[in-house]
Structures are given as C-alpha cells and as structure tokens.
Write a structure and sequence with these properties.
Length: about 180
C-alpha cells in the first residue's frame, strides 16, 4: 500500500535525508532530473534542504509517495512569482524509485499534481523531460501535448548531452473550456 502526502517546509527539512536517498537512487538509475551520477548524498540533502524555503514561500509544492517502510516517489509543482504567469505551473522532479516502477505510481503522482494545480486555479502546466525516456510515454498517455525537442539541452546522468522534449497540458477551467 502506497500513501501520497503533500509536504510542508518543515517536513521537507525533516525528510531531506530520505528525499536525498530517493533522488540519488533515481539519478544512479539513469533518470535525468538535473543531476549527474553518481550523486553524493550530502549534495542531494543540501539540494532538498534548499527547497524548503521555496515550499514555505508558496513557490513550490512537493508530494511524496511512501510504502510502509520507504519513500518511493515524489513530484513537485513550481509556481511562478510574476503577475502575468500565475495561471501556469511547471511540473518538476517527478521521480519514482527504481524499486517502485511499473506499478502506476508515476501516473498516480502525475494525477495528484494535475488535480492540485487545477484546484489552485492553475490552467496550464508545462514540463521538460529527456527525449525518448520512459517519462515521455507517461506524459503522452496522460494527455500531455508534445511541443518539440531541444537538442543537447541537458547532460544525462551518464555525462552525455541529450535532447529534451517540452510538453504542456491544460487543466481545470481550461480543460472544461476546451471541450
């Protein structure tokens, strides 16, 4: 049984070590989420601790998925602070631990983030992900629209430059208006 919960800033700090383990294992498993392998634990902890202020300021929302004994996944929504962009958010750091893959957890986390975004009045989500990654399949099957790919956008965990694909999805009121 997996439970998903939204973290407060204090909870991000309290769970930074466990979040860091998830991040390091995900990167070491080949997922391109902004870091190179091997990712040392101290750097991963420091990165997560740095997110707590963003959560406290309302610029970032973070959800985690836990089994009875471990953290299996996370997803975030980054909210812009400019007045002309408050209708949109970026889906960030959707990660599923290698041991938790193939069980629909990525889809569950994605759905939770989409519903939460719509509940806050967000009408447009966007993201980027490594081209030809399993994540592309997830986003396409969840109704996201592929905009295109940018060559040599990011360095994969292995150190090789890879293209990234940009996606968007209308949610909430925008989804209802489009039908």
């Amino acid at each position: 049984m997996t439970a998903v919960s939204r973290l407060s800033a204090a909870e991000v700090l309290a769970q930074a070590d466990e979040l860091a383990g998830l991040l390091a294992d995900t990167v070491d498993g080949g997922a391109s989420v902004g870091f190179l392998a091997p990712l040392d634990r101290a750097s991963a902890v420091a990165w997560w601790e740095g997110r707590a202020a963003e959560v406290a300021a309302g610029h970032l929302a973070v959800w985690v998925a836990h089994s009875a004994d471990r953290m299996l996944g996370t997803v975030g929504l980054a909210f812009p602070d400019k007045p002309n962009s408050r209708h949109r958010a970026e889906l960030v750091k959707l990660m599923v631990h290698p041991d938790g893959r193939g069980r629909g957890l990525g889809r569950t986390l994605l759905t939770i983030a989409e519903l939460a975004a719509a509940a806050t009045g967000v009408t447009l989500l966007h993201l980027d992900t490594e081209t030809d990654s399993p994540a592309e399949t997830l986003y396409l099957s969840a109704g996201w629209t592929r905009l295109g790919a940018i060559p040599d956008y990011a360095t994969a965990p292995s150190g090789v430059l890879r293209p990234t694909t940009v996606f968007y999805k209308r949610v909430g009121a925008a989804t209802a208006a489009a039908t």
